[in-house]
Structure formats: C-alpha cells, structure tokens
Design a protein that fits this description.
Helix 1 packs parallel to helix 6, helix 2 crosses helix 9 and helix 11 packs across helix 12. With about 500 residues, the protein is α+β, with helices and mostly antiparallel strands. The strands form five sheets. Strands 1, 2, 9, 10, 11, 12, 19 and 20 form an eight-stranded mixed sheet that branches. Strands 13, 15, 16, 17 and 18 form a five-stranded antiparallel sheet that branches. It is about 30% helix and about 20% strand. It starts with 10 loop residues before the first strand and ends in a 22-residue tail after the last helix. It has 13 helices and 22 strands. Strand 21 and strand 22 form a beta hairpin. The protein folds into three domains: about 230 residues, FAD/NAD(P)-binding domain (3-Layer(bba) Sandwich); about 140 residues, D-Amino Acid Oxidase, subunit A, domain 2 (D-Amino Acid Oxidase, Chain A, domain 2, 2-Layer Sandwich); about 80 residues, Arc Repressor Mutant, subunit A (Orthogonal Bundle), CATH 1.10.10.1100. The chain binds flavin-adenine dinucleotide (FAD). The site of flavin-adenine dinucleotide (FAD) has 40 residues, from helix 1, strand 18 and helix 9. Flavin-adenine dinucleotide binds next to helix 1, strand 18 and helix 9.
C-alpha cells in the first residue's frame, strides 16, 4: 500500500475529505458497501487534527441538550463502544467519571445535569456524597459529585487508527499530503482539486474539521464560519497515574465554552490536566501559553491536590471548531446535512465535543443521508475485525517470554522509557496505511513518548524505517513533507 497513487481516468464512488476520527469512521462504515472509496487528507497521516488533541474521554451524554444530534449520537456512541473496541482491538477503560461540587449552587447544577442525562437516556447517573468519592477516587476533592458509571477513557489516536486501518483493509484508499483546494461539479461528477492531483467522484463527504467551513463553501454552502477555540493541556508523569483511576471534572461554566479544567487518566497511565478555553485567530496555532498553564495548575489542583510541578512532562493544545463566536456564545448542534445545492455531498460542520464519542453514529447518519438518494449494495467481503500491535510492556514475564519465543524481535528494546520492542516498531512500520514517518511510528507504538521524548530511540526508529522502506537517511521524514532529519553523514 505504500505510495498509493491515482490514475487520471480513475473514478471514485465516494471521496471523503479529512481523516480525523469522523472521516475515518465514515470510511470504515462506508466500506461495508460495495463502493470505491478514497480519503483525501492534507496531513501525512490520519488523526493529525482535533482528533489527536483532546481529553480522550468517551462521554456519557449528560452535557448535551436533549433532542440534539450531539446528545443522541453521544449516548449511542458510548453504548456501542464495547463492540467496536473489541472489533478494532483498541485500548479503553470503562472508568466512570465524577463531576465534583462544593457549594449548594453546585449541587443544584449537578441535579440539573443529572436531569439532562436522564432525559438523554444516560444509564446509572447518581449524586454521591464525599464518602463515595473517597471510595471511587480517594485523591479527588469534592463535597459531593455526579457519578457517571458509563463514561470511559480511550486513546483517540488508536481509535482513529483502528477505524482507518480497518477501512483500508476493506478496500478504502487513503491519499495523504493531499489538501483539497477546490471542488467543481459537472455532469454529475465532483472534481476535487488537491495540492497533488485532481480526483473524480460521484459523492463527496466533508469531514474536514477545522477546514470544514472552507470545504462547505466550495460545495456552494458558504454561510458557515468556524471560530477556533484553543484548549491547552499538561501531560503528567505516569507516577501520579495510580492516584487518579477516573476522570474528575468541575461543574462546567457555560461562559468558558467547554466542560471546565478537569483531570483525566489516559489509557497509558499518564494524567492530563486541561483544557483551557480561548478563542484564537488562526486555526493552526497550537502554541501553549504561560497564562493558560498557570490556570491549568490552579484548576487541576483544586480537584487533585496531589499534583506537583515535578510531575509535568509536556504540554499540547487542541482547537475546537466552534460554530459560535466568543461574543455569540450559546449552543450550536452538529451540522450534518445533504442539501439541494449539493445533492451528492454530505456536509459536516462544527463537529466539536463530543465528536470523538459520537464518530460512529455520525458516520451512520452520513450513510442514512446518502441512502436517501441511492441504495448501496453490501460488500460481502467486509471484515469488521482489525488486529492491533501486541504491546510487550504490559504482559506478565511468562507472556513476555512466550512472545520472545515466537518472535525474537520482542527481545530487543528500542524505546527504554516505554519498553517498546523492535517487534512493535516493525509492526508499526508495516501498517496498512503505508505511513513511515518517525511521528507516524511514534503514535502507533509509543516510541519517543516517555520521559526522554525520543533522545534514545528516535535515531533507532529512523534506522528501522530506512531498513524497512528502503530509504536513505536523507529521505526519512520526521512528520510533514519536507521535515527531513538528516542532511548527510558526519564522517
Ligand atoms: C480541547 C478538546 C477536548 C475534547 N475532548 C473530547 C472528549 O474528551 N471526548 C469527545 O468525545 N470529544 C472531545 N473533543 C471533540 C473531538 O476531539 C472532535 O469532535 C473530533 O476529534 C472531531 O473529529 P473530526 O474528524 O471532525 O476533525 P479532525 O480530527 O480535525 O479531522 C479533520 C481532518 O480534515 C483534514 N483537513 C482539513 N482541511 C482539509 C482539506 N482542505 N483537504 C484535506 N484534508 C483536510 C485535517 O487535516 C484533519 O485531519 C474535544 C475537542 C477539543 C478541541
């Protein structure tokens, strides 16, 4: 699959623009049908936008307005997750979640959230007292809390990757480094012009996240504006992980435009504090600011006082694709539409939180809208199962010995901080999407993610990429096109 190309006379049934979690879910669900599908992505890999930069929480659905698409698809996405996680072999944990309160006003707001959740069909919501908080998460502070047992944590990259790889294994083709710059419709065919080529298709699905208003305008629906709203995070050392078995949130302040600064464990044992909430001008400004960092420490410590500066490893930011500006505020639902001005296009705009949780039901809705126009015949060869990379580090010594016996490459450690073996790195390089950048391998198997952030393993990973992809050192890319790491030998 490496270096997927398209020929001039090729015609697709569906072109999906964007391979975040939503585009990948649409690709995977459409591959259940006998269709020729392509995904056009401006970045060199899947999950390079908002889908990689969030809290990684599988929401339950008590924060969303009853009757909205957000509420419906969040609850459905949460309910169906066990099955899809099994099929795609991806890590997640049904941890449950606490929303903590301290004052009588807080209690009223928690009761209102519970009522919203009950209306939306969220199972098992309860208001619990301090004793119960102590049992569920002893290090978390709060006088009382809303307890949501169905909330879970997941690895957003692994989820998106699972969907995309499963789509690829079922015949979908991914075209990376292809930014869509124009769309023309003539004689029933879309011509999607990208920075690399022109692709032809009968259908287009706009899953471009922060770029979705631009694609929407190319489709003739120019009334949308995306207002980027940045959320910054701290990543904490796994040392503090055992203190936080579940996500703990404050009561959201609607004026702040998010769910508030919370603390949440990751499936890999780190802890995240965040996100802040700040409207910004550009949609690719991922910088982290001292001001937001100070705010995070204050907000996070209120819920988890055990946090210390020595636990901080690094920070990152995500950007919410909001349909309302800072001054407008208020609620705007997901836009998922097929309109007369573009009858063979499905337009998705403003897919902000809970878009990660809701991705599969959103894909279901896209297909429902398409099937109003045309009935798709099933792909009888569709296989919903995808196997992930078997991790070495969380196995028992007996299981590790067994793995090494089966494959001696499990006996060679490439990343010391995270205990990632050569076998895992090689499996990552042999991925079905044909991605062989250093960061592509990092996100697939966790090399370079530990304390030393690649000081030890980065060159070793580059060497394995060279070996597997038959590349010279000068050809190995760090991430984007042009991000060369080596210019030649020293001696
Ligand atoms: C701070 C923060 C916290 C969040 N926390 C959660 C959470 O805990 N749980 C939850 O359920 N949701 C959460 N969300 C929301 C969730 O992350 C998003 O709703 C979801 O990731 C959106 O996915 P997407 O595929 O629509 O967008 P993206 O992941 O942004 O994907 C869009 C893709 O389109 C590509 N693209 C754009 N323009 C073009 C073009 N012209 N040509 C080709 N490709 C293009 C981009 O490169 C990108 O890869 C959070 C969001 C933020 C910002």
């Amino acid at each position: 699959m490496k270096g997927v190309t398209v020929t001039m006379d090729e015609m697709f049934d569906v072109l999906i623009i964007g391979s975040g979690v939503v585009g990948s879910a649409v690709a995977r669900e459409l591959s259940r049908y006998s269709l020729k599908i392509g995904v056009l992505e401006k970045e060199p890999d899947v999950c390079c936008g908002t889908s990689a930069r969030n809290s990684g929480v599988l929401h339950a659905g008590f924060n969303n307005k009853p009757g909205s698409l957000m509420a419906r698809f969040c609850v459905e996405g949460n309910r169906g997750f066990d099955e899809v996680a099994r099929e795609l072999d991806i890590p997640y944990k049904r941890t449950g979640k606490l929303v903590v309160g301290f004052t009588p006003t807080d209690r009223e707001r928690l009761l209102a959230m519970k009522e919203t959740g009950d209306k939306n069909g969220v199972p098992g919501l309860e208001i619990v007292d301090r004793n119960r908080i102590n049992k569920l998460a002893p290090a978390v502070r709060g006088e009382f809390a809303l307890w949501s047992p169905s909330t879970a944590i997941l690895d957003p990259f692994q989820y998106t990757l699972g969907l995309a790889e499963n789509a690829a294994l079922n015949g979908v083709r991914f075209f990376f480094n292809n930014e869509v710059t124009g769309l023309e419709f003539s004689d029933g065919i879309y011509h999607a012009k990208t920075t690399k080529a022109t692709y032809r298709s009968r259908w287009v699905v706009n899953c471009a996240g922060l770029g979705s208003a631009k694609i929407s305008a190319m489709l003739g629906m120019g009334e949308y504006t995306i207002h980027p709203c940045r959320g910054e995070y701290f990543v904490l050392d796994p040392k503090i992980g055992p203190l936080l078995p579940l996500p703990a949130y404050p009561i959201p302040n609607p004026a702040e435009g998010g769910l508030g600064i919370h603390v949440t464990p990751t499936v890999d044992g780190n802890v995240l504090i965040g996100p802040s909430s700040e409207y910004i001008d550009g949609d690719d400004d991922y910088s982290c600011t001292q001001q937001a960092m100070d705010l995070l420490i204050k907000g996070g410590s209120k819920i988890l006082p055990a946090i210390k500066r020595e636990h901080f490893i690094r920070n990152f930011a995500g950007i919410r694709p909001k349909l309302t500006s800072e001054s407008e505020g208020g609620f705007r639902d997901f836009v998922i539409e097929r309109r007369p001005e573009a009858p063979h296009a499905v337009n998705l705009v403003g897919i902000e939180s809970p878009g990660l949780t809701a991705a599969l039901p959103i894909a279901g809705e896209v297909i429902r809208l398409m099937q109003q126009v045309e009935t798709f015949s099933p792909n009888h060869g569709f296989n919903p199962v995808r196997k992930g990379i078997t991790p070495f580090r969380n196995k028992t010594p007996e299981q590790q010995a067994e793995l090494i016996k089966e494959n001696p490459d499990y006996g060679e450690i490439v990343c010391r901080c995270e205990t990632i073996t050569k076998a895992e790195v090689l499996a990552a390089i042999r991925n079905p999407l044909g991605v062989d950048t250093v960061t592509g391998i990092k996100y697939r198997c966790r090399t370079m993610m530990g304390r030393c952030q690649g000081g030890y393993c980065q060159t070793r990973v580059a060497e394995l990429i060279m070996q597997e992809s038959h590349k010279t050192p000068e050809e190995v890319l760090y991430s984007r096109e042009g991000s060369y790491q080596f210019t030649g030998t020293v001696r």
